[in-house]
Amino acid sequence: MKARGAVIHEIGGKWEVEDLELSGPGDHEVLVQVMASGLCHSDDHFVTGDLAVTLPMVGGHEGAGIVKEVGSKVSRVKVGDHVSTLFIPACGTCRYCARGQSYICNNGAGMEHGLAMDGTPRFHLAESGKGIGGVTRLGTFANYLVCHESQTVKLPDDIPFDVACLVSCGVATGWGAAVNAAVIRPGDVVLVMGVGGVGMNAVQGARHAGADHVLVAEPVEWKREAAMNFGASEVFASVDDARERIAHLTNGQGVDAAIITVGRVDGDIIGQAFEVTGKAGATILASIGSSDKYIAASPQDFTNFAKRIQGVMYGLCNPVVDIPRLLQMYQDGRIKLDELVTKRYDVSEINEAYADMHAGNNIRGVIVHTH
Ligand SMILES: [Zn+2]
Ligand SMILES: [Zn+2]
Fold first, then answer.
1. What is the DSSP letter of 229?
2. Same domain for 203 and 135?
3. The domain spanning residue 25 has which CATH number?
4. Average pLDDT in the 33-40 region?
5. Same-domain check for residues 180 and 263
6. What is the mean pLDDT of residues 225-229?
7. Is residue 309 within 8 Å of residue 283, measured between CB atoms?
8. What CATH number has the domain bearing residue 282?
9. How does pLDDT run across 232-269, given as a tens digit for each residue?
10. Are residue 224 and residue 119 in the same domain, yes or no?
11. How many C-alpha atoms does 37 have within 13 Å on its Cβ side?
12. Residue 219 sits in the same domain as residue 143
């Protein structure tokens, strides 16, 4: 069948919106009519080359849509179901899924090629016939995609797609960074560095977990103001600007958790977060960026102060459980999602949308697909 979506051909290139041919679903696969896709920063990391993937590739991994067709052995969803797309499969039976860590499901292996699990492409460029992958085996910047059933979770029918899509990546990642990775406790002092589509949810998660003080460091003024609406207690333009207040609140010890949710991370930023993290505290790394083998942190500080740096994949969430739970919290009014979507775009506007992201104009931009 025919699809249309945004493809990246080379590092440093522009997104090209192209006609695609889509192969039908295999036994354990589903055809999804993609209704909305978040413009996650991770897709931009494929463009810059921070994350190495096989190009060309259809972009997008933060999706929500409707199941239109299922393979003969699919049991997880059925035609007509509204679904969230998972950027890592949750197979349920591998070593990690079985022990409640589906955020590192073994079936994520090979994902950088974007091909189906049998190693063959589902997308084909209409013009040349060349088979290509989709980001994380999805490709939600296309209006239709075929993915493995283990990369879907059924959604309630009454959740708007442009809100639901965000929960499949940015919301789960940010929320989980605070709740699952930092393990924030009532009374804690927390610093969130960078409040985009992930960081804003780290703020919400920290508040929900009972932190007394949720400090935010964010260079963009209107985002600092928006963060107050998501539960931040005080906002600063930089970590340096927050130092005095952190010292005051913690008797000079440092924060219980410093959560890094900046657009692009490097070893100096991790070092800065680690430095303001207090004894037995956690520096939480949810951002992607440099792959240099360098972090500006003193080994002695790990030992002497019993500090840790914890990496976060998918917010350490189990999306089959956590996505419906987060959406229930949204429906109950305990977590804000509508306010995360600051602009909606047609897929033809995708380059403008990413320019807006870099300019700090969005918390989250969302592509609303047409069919
Ligand atoms: Zn993402
Ligand atoms: Zn698994």
1. H
2. no
3. 3.90.180.10
4. 98
5. yes
6. 98
7. yes
8. 3.40.50.720
9. 999 999 999 999 999 999 999 999 999 999 999 999 99
10. no
11. 34
12. no
Distance, CA 150 to ligand 2 centroid (Å)? Answer: 9
User: Taking the mean position of all CA atoms in its chain, how far away is CA 349?
Assistant: 21
Token readout for 231 is 């539960």
- State the ligand closest to the CA atom of 42: 1
Residue 354 lies in a domain: yes
Q: How far is Cα 158 from Cα 245, in angstroms, rounded to an integer?
A: 43
Residues 63 and 102 in one domain: yes
- Is residue 134, in this structure, part of any structural domain at all? yes
**For residue 137, how far is its CA from the centre of ligand 1 (angstroms)?**
13
State whether 309 and 342 are in the same domain: no
pLDDT per residue over 40-91, tens digit each? 999 999 999 999 999 999 999 999 999 999 999 999 999 999 999 999 999 9
Q: Compute, in angstroms, the gap from residue 95 CA to the centroid of ligand 2.
A: 7
- Residue ranges making up the domain that contains 192: 174-313
Clarify whether residues 296 and 364 are in a common domain: no
Ligand 1 mean position, distance from CA 140 (Å): 11
Q: What pLDDT, in 10s, does the model give residues 295-319?
A: 999 999 999 999 999 999 999 999 9
Q: What is the mean pLDDT of residues 269-286?
A: 98
Q: Compute the distance from residue 98 Cα to the ligand 2 centre, in Å.
A: 7
| pLDDT for the residue numbered 105 | 98
Q: What is the CB neighbour count within 10 angstroms for residue 71?
A: 16
Find the 331 Cα to ligand 1 centroid distance in Å: 22
Q: What DSSP designation does 86 have?
A: P
Same domain, 31 and 141: yes
| CA 113 to centroid of ligand 2, rounded, Å | 18
Domain count, the chain: 2
Q: Which residues surround ligand 1, an ion (CB under 5 A)?
A: 40, 42, 169
Q: Is the pTM of this model over 0.90?
A: yes
Strands 57-58 and 2-8: antiparallel
Copy the structure tokens of residue 284.
């939480």
